[in-house]
Task: structure prediction
Amino acid sequence: METKNSSVVTEFILLGLTQSQDTQLLVFALISVFYLIILPGNFLIIFTVRSDPGLTAPLYFFLGNLAFLDASYSFIVVPRMLVDFFCEKKVISYQSCITQLFFLHFLGAGEMFLLVVMAFDRYIAICRPLYYATLMNPRVCYALLLALWLGGFAHSIVQVALILNLPFCGPNQLDNFFCDVPQVIKLACTDTFEVELLMVSNSGLLTLLCFLGLLASYAVILYHVKGQSSEGKRKAVSTCTTHIIIVFLMFGPAIFIYTRPFQALKADKVVSLFHTVIFPLMNPVIYTLRNQEVKTSMRKLLNHYVVC
Result:
């Protein structure tokens, strides 16, 4: 992507997560261990869902896609971040910055919309079980998957358009360890009031509305199952609780970051670290640890390959 003629900045300098060398080494070690342990778990979830014929329900289809999205999301920031820990000057080109920003919002919005789809799936399964087989057939599931990918693409294109229309001709230091809209906008050589309002509308408001909608939908589901048998109620509550945990992990940091257009806080970097590195890899794992069918399938799969 090319900059506008009025732009003279061709690269940005990332100030990183911290200036303390000891803290950087500690964070590097922790993220490396976390990355090498949790990331294979996401691929194992994908492989398990794909290979076990007993996990063909829409719930597991969407879980496999959640693991794929989160695993892909983790490659946007983490590899470069780990390399930058050992670089005295952390430089990213304008084009690379825009590319990073695009995929960050493309996959992030895709996951946000996927969580909405998963909530819809649970609502139909629990509140309208007689219509579930009709409403959530394979064709509908693939159509919903296509819709969330297109939605993520549209959201990301708007974010990129906000940046490409801005002139950058002065400061080029980003007070973060990756490129994102709030920090990049503040470096523009123009009044960014309207642009930041658009950012809040496109990211902050959309995220907040989805978050509140998801909480409302799960509240309806939990209210619906309160009169059911103990076994059905237990399973529904367990599934909804897991989804609610993931919703808070996904939407909480995003709301914190994208609903404050005109100020930066010291906590932004820490929240961004969890939002881009820790939580994405944890989401599918949290779900799997609370889902007996997936855990049983994983054990069978691992036993099969260990024996072989």
